[in-house]
Amino acid sequence: MRCQKYLSYLGALSLALSAELVPFSQVTPPLRAQPLEVSLSFPPVENRGTLSRTAGGGTRRRGATASCVTGNTPLTALAPSNNVGTTVSGNPTLFWYVPETTAQSAEFLVFDAHDAQGKNVYLTTLALNGTPGVVNLNLPKTVSLEPGKEYTWHLALVCNPLNRKQDMLVRGQLKRTELSSEQKTQLAAATEPLKQAEVYARAKVWQETLMILAQLYRDRPNDSHISEAWKELLQSVQLEAIATKPLVECCKAENPLQ
Fold first, then answer.
1. Which residues are CB-contacts of 108 (< 8 A; sequence separation ≥ 6)?
2. Which of 19, 190, 217, 249 could make a disulfide contact with 195, Cβ separation 3.0–4.6 Å?
3. pLDDT tens-digit profile of 149-202?
4. Residue 27 maps to a domain
């Protein structure tokens, strides 16, 4: 199986720090006297019977006998219900909730699911720290997802480096799309980040909607209007359990390969 093939290869990676799950860098404008009236409820998406957003329910590699995570909320991808993260970027930012874990590292892979040769788009090992909480990974500029194509990603917590069958694994998909001329005009006219997020949400562009809201939520932790918008977005895709989790600084990426 493709998953077993790549995760077996990932297990042999050496550790050499060179990149990182980056902190947010967008400059947040000052607070307005009156909050904007926006709707951050993400529209319904097509049910494609795709990969699960969570690694819950004992979902590990075949033959696994133990778990390295605790708590009621499992390793979870912050994604719409069909687990397809739409984006307008060639190198988007991805988000997960990582529970309390004894794992010291995780492994992340993006590949073209329709490539007969199984070519990797991005491959790296992550040094975990600062969890539990919501973490983000910004794909480097060397990655360039092609418009209209779908890609599959894997994130595995390495519970036992000596027995990779015990990895906790979650998978999902990325699809790069394009805004219409009208949507581009609306985005250009939206001078406030919340309005920009609303434009992306209405266009069903998940990754940019989430990234803007996460930036605001991180920078304005005491702004109830931002907190409600963050909760509204996650609740609209049935991620209520994640809405109250902290955004944390994690993690170092080690030995990124392509």
1. 122, 123, 124, 125, 126, 137, 153, 154, 155, 156, 253
2. 190
3. 999 999 999 999 999 889 999 999 999 999 999 999 999 999 999 999 999 999
4. no
pLDDT single digits (tens) 198-256: 999 999 999 999 999 999 999 998 999 999 999 999 999 999 999 999 999 877 676 65
The tokens for 143 are 């990655």
Q: Are the C-beta atoms of residues 10 and 156 closer than 8 Å to each other? A: yes
Q: Which helix (H) or strand (E) holds 211?
A: helix 206-219
Three-state secondary structure along 152-169?
Answer: EEEEEECCCCCCHHHCEE
Q: What letter would DSSP give residue 32? A: P
Q: Which domain does 173 fall in, by range?
A: 2-20+37-253
Domain CATH code at residue 249: 2.60.40.10
